[in-house]
Amino acid sequence: MPTFTYTARTKAGQKVSGSVEANDRRAALMQIEAMGQMPVAVSEKAGVAAAKPAEKGSRGRLKVRRGPARLAGRDVLVFTTELSDLLASGMTLGNALNTLGNRQSGRDSDEIIKTLRDDIIRGASLSDALARHPDSFANLYVSMIRAGEASGALAEVLRRLVDHFERVQETKEKVVMALVYPLIVLVMGVATLIFSMVYVVPRFKVVFEQMGQTLPLPTRMLIASSGWLVKYGWAAAIVGVILGVLFQRSLKTPRGRRAWDAFLLKIPLIRGVVSCGIYANFARTLSTLLANGVAVLQALGIVEKTVGNLVIGEEIRKARERVTDGTTISGPLAAGKIFPRMLTDMLAIGEQTGDMPGSLNHIARRYENELNRHIKIFTTALEPILIVVVAVMVGFVAVSILLAVFSLTNGLNI
Fold first, then answer.
1. Which domains does the chain have, with CATH numbers?
2. Statement: the pTM of the whole predicted model exceeds 0.85
3. Which of the residues 57, 63, 130, 258 could staple to 137 if both were Cys, CB 3.0 to 4.6 A apart?
């Protein structure tokens, strides 16, 4: 049976070391924890095995890692919820992370949580440990945790983070669900059109050519378009992919992203959904930060990076530069004329009453309701528009073929 050497800490925080015999490293960890100690490092006595390019999953499948471990938005929400529940039950931070780290889900969260646990055992604060994983935990998350550590209300901060991320996730899901049906209609319509142009029209073309009569203009246009699609469709697909890649790359540049974000704020139907989502996110995030003791200027700097729109983010940065007394932000935000008057007026009332977080919560609820209304308008208008577009495309094919059939029938005096 292999022997494992370990370094651990007792419940009193004293560092100890020793060795245990176990079938594998996991069994060794369980033995160390059963002794009431928290393992810091465990290795096989014969030496550390050479690193392997792939790890076996819990069911014997090979698990290949692509890039550094990171948590998706949904994983961060689950981790925060579970950690908040464990701390609220009276468990210490180290034991809570150890409990979460001992789970074997086979996901990136296992590795990250174990790293957080080890950092805490070594004496690091939770905020510092989280800051070492910027791809998983945003600046907003780390700043709120740091504020919770300073105020001694970490469990309460985690609960507020859970509420915040649930609202953000709910807003995203509303927008996605609103687009599902229109996208299905559009995809099916385009697929039907392509099938007709590639498979159906060429067969009618053969029949029409055998008749040897002059075809109507719409039919000639349809046959020419079908012939071009059959002959050069692959080239059109390649060009489309290239344009899509270039568009994605342009969005990664400041200039391209700013142009796209500005465009979204001007498109009819879409601009209401985009702007209300941004304003609700801005108010909710700023309220959460201020309620947890984050300074106004620092909170604005965080919101600037998390608002999700470069145009609005630049305006927040300018407003942050205009802030002079560190508390009054409604005037600087109104000066840019980007934020709606209602938002800045409600924020000014919160400044006058000394309850900015409460006022920002009212603003967030208002624009969340506005977001729901704009989503309903968007989906109500988009569905018939897409249906009409698809009907026109497919209808053009059908009408062009019928016109040719009627023309040939009349020519044959039938």
1. 1-44 (3.10.20), 73-165 (1.20.81.30), 168-414 (no CATH)
2. no
3. 130
